[in-house]
Amino acid sequence: MTRPNASARCALRTPSCRRPAWSRAAALSGLVATCAIAACSKRSAPPERPPAPVVSVPVTVSDVTVSRDYPAQAVSVRTVEIDARVEGWLLAQKYTDGAMVDAGQLMYELDPAPYRIALEFAQAKLAAAEASLFDATQKYERNKPLVSTGAISREEFDQLEAQWLGAKAGVLAAVADVDNAKLNLSYCTIASPVRVQASKTRVYEGTLVKPESNGTLTDVRQLDPIWIEFSPVASDIPALRALQSSGAATVPVKDPSGTWSGTGKVVFVNNAVDTSTSTIIARVEVANPDLAVMPGQYLSVSLPQRVIKGAISVPQAAIVYQTAAAIVWTVTPEQTAKSANVDVIGFGGAGLVIGSGLAPDSRVIVEGQGRLAPGAKVAEAKPTAPKAGSAAPGGESPAMPPKPDAPAQKSDAPAAPSAS
Question: Model pTM?
């Protein structure tokens, strides 16, 4: 009896053995593809994003004085050029460049010799004129009674009288010459008109000074008090007039870097509005006993506008500007982020006063706004320490954008200085 071969035995045991090789390969490929699709489906579902770390603070509700910030510049109350009034050799500079000089303190000395001689000559001419007057007076008085007796003609007496009057005029002229010589001699010593800080000298000892060419010797500036000049918009004129009338030193002034601040009073409001910018020049006078502010220095003036009862204010770091719109990110009770358009009406309170867009119980985000999207989960984080020259939450930050109906230079605040 013949035994079946291996292929026959496989066919008898199972039907799968009867499948061709290409069929088994296709089945294996399909199984692998199915597993790969299942694995990819599981990886395509992203994990839930963790809450974004933010720093938030509650809004401040209080009665605040709304103010508007303006860029300003310090101006000396009195700037004087020290000029030579007469020609002469500069003998000495009597002060140190940059020193404080008291009123009446000697600053320069010119060679007085020529003017002293001129004074002596004028005094001699005065003495001669007085002698001539004495002689003419004697002749006039002696001959005056003789006219009525006919001992002297009227014509001769008139000549004597004319000589007497001419002698009197000669004395007056000589007196004027003496006064002029004294004045020129006094111009050889040049003193400060008020207590000021002197600048560096422009002319040095040994130089021939001529008023028409190099007569300006130096300049001096009064620094205490000092004026702070700025250009508010015309709509602020009523507030300026009220502050000027009160005479109260209630206008805050500060250095943009935060190293100096003070208060002053409005002492000047110009008599016309600049038609090209709709602004008006105003000045605030500030005490400057320690000379911390110098002429030409850039400052910021916060002009008080009005008092708002129960106003909502937020730190300046909470405001995010988009074109001409101001946005604030808030934290909802569900710990999610929500953006709100707000109306910023001025400075005050915690930083900026909000006219609309926030509720009194809102919490605003002051750090971490750049990672937020509406509805995103948030988690409270520790505030970061402010960098040198940067503002902490609630401190100085980029200023409010200009109002759409106002020129760019009339923004509610000066442009924020860049950190140095």
Answer: 0.63
